[in-house]
Amino acid sequence: ADLARLPQGTGSLGDRMARAMGARGPVRHPGSVAVIGADIPGIRRRHIAAAFSALGSADAVIGPAPDGGYWLLGLRHPARAPRGFLLGVRWSTAHARSDTRATLHPRRIAETATLRDVDTLADLRALRSGGRPRRGA
Fold first, then answer.
1. How many CB atoms lie within 10 A of CB 7?
2. Distance between CA 60 and CA 118 in Å, rounded?
3. What's the DSSP call for residue 93?
4. Helix (H, G, I), strand (E, B) or coil at 15
5. Beta bridge mates, 83
6. In sequence order, what E strands does the chain have?
7. Helix (H) or strand (E) run with residue 127 in it
8. Planar angle of CA 89, 90, 92, nearest 5 degrees
9. Model confidence, pTM
10. Do the beta carbons of residue 63 and residue 71 sit within 8 Å?
11. Which residues on adjacent β-strands are paired with residue 62?
12. Is 23 helix (H, G, I), strand (E, B) or coil?
């Protein structure tokens, strides 16, 4: 109850993420910021710490997911995000990570640990069985 909450607003997933990160809109963060998926069962404090540590020498950090997406996206200076940041990303496809990287060009991008996200029933079943989800699922 003591944590600040911000409405997501309208638009694509990229619009909402960029707004929350302070890259577009009235919200401004004084330092580095990261957004994470709510569907990452393997996430631990050390993963978040490693991502913020990577921002010490990179402009952005991405936590890859095996399906071509990502579980984390961070920026060292959100107010300095490129003009086209997160525009044109093909969300929920195997291209999401590569499209996001393209919107960050020419910034330095680090990658952190690969973690599985749970987007589909097949992903959940694979997680429960200890297997791997199908690529592009």
1. 8
2. 23
3. S
4. helix
5. none
6. 33-36, 60-64, 70-75, 109-111
7. helix 121-129
8. 125
9. 0.86
10. yes
11. 73, 111
12. coil
